[in-house]
Automatic annotation (TrEMBL):
Pfam families: ThiJ_like. It comes from the Eukaryota. The lineage of its organism: Eukaryota, Fungi, Dikarya, Ascomycota, Pezizomycotina. Gene3D superfamilies: 3.40.50.880. It comes from Exophiala sideris. This is DJ-1/PfpI domain-containing protein.
């Protein structure tokens, strides 16, 4: 039986590379893929990363743009389930995937009590040894960090986990570089708010649990205690998805 993966997404605003490239890798690996949005509406990724001068100068690479075209035509993308449906249980899946994206539309999922509830129930089940896995990239890690543990509401579900996310230096650099043209577009919660790195690190038991790299090479962090992988930003997406396939295949075959 093919491993089952579910993408939890906002209606609009995710980064096209961080959604379409993992979808492509999982599809080629033969995974059974499901998508979920708040009310079952087809997810649409950030158009500024695909078209216009922002798409040309700052946006997704051509390979990701081509992948996104095919992604958008996938019937599973066009007909997602709803993460507000009371019958939805993440435990029915082998892998939960959280793509990122900096457009303000992703606040729909970052701020969702229902998504937090689902993750609080699921994430502890990824503790090794387990057949359950979770993978997040960029602002997807912020979704996890914002979700509180079911056992201790003062702590994040990933309070004791090694993770990466969008580095603060990268976020602030592109924000200041584009401010004259795009305003606070690169700050999901607006000018003057904490970076993703700051938000995530504040929810960890120790700042040392946040793993960082400012290099251009793909960078993926694997936690030693949980079946959990994380990435920083779009250039990490393909390696992250490949490592996710290897991890899921390993833990499900070992069961």
């Amino acid at each position: 039986m093919a491993p089952k993966v579910i993408f939890l997404m906002a209606d609009y605003g995710h980064d096209p590379t961080e959604a379409a490239i993992p979808w492509k890798v999982f599809n080629e690996a033969g995974f059974d893929i499901t998508f979920a949005t708040e009310a079952g509406k087809q997810p649409v990724c950030d158009s500024r990363m695909l078209t216009g001068w922002t798409g040309a100068l700052l946006g997704a690479p051509q390979v990701a743009k081509e992948a996104y075209k095919t992604f958008s035509r996938d019937s599973r993308v066009q007909n997602p389930t709803s993460w507000t449906d009371p019958s939805l249980k993440l435990e029915d899946y082998d892998l939960v995937f959280l793509p990122g994206g900096h457009d303000k539309g992703v606040r729909q999922i970052i701020d969702s009590p229902r998504v937090h509830e689902l993750l609080a129930a699921y994430f502890p089940k990824t503790a090794k040894p387990s057949t359950k896995s979770l993978v997040a990239i960029c602002h997807g890690v912020q979704v996890l960090a914002t979700a509180s543990s079911a056992e201790d509401k003062s702590k994040s579900v990933i309070h004791d986990v090694q993770t990466t996310a969008l580095p603060g230096f990268m976020e602030q650099s592109i924000y200041y570089a584009t401010w004259p043209f795009l305003g606070d577009y690169y700050k999901t919660y607006g000018a003057g708010t904490d970076s993703v790195q700051e938000i995530v690190t504040k929810r960890l038991d120790s700042p040392s649990l946040f793993k960082n790299s400012l290099g251009p090479s793909p960078f993926v962090v694997e936690d030693p205690k949980y079946n959990y992988l994380s990435g920083r930003f779009p250039p990490d997406a393909e390696l992250l998805a490949q490592k996710a396939v290897a991890m899921v295949n390993e833990v499900t075959k070992a069961a």
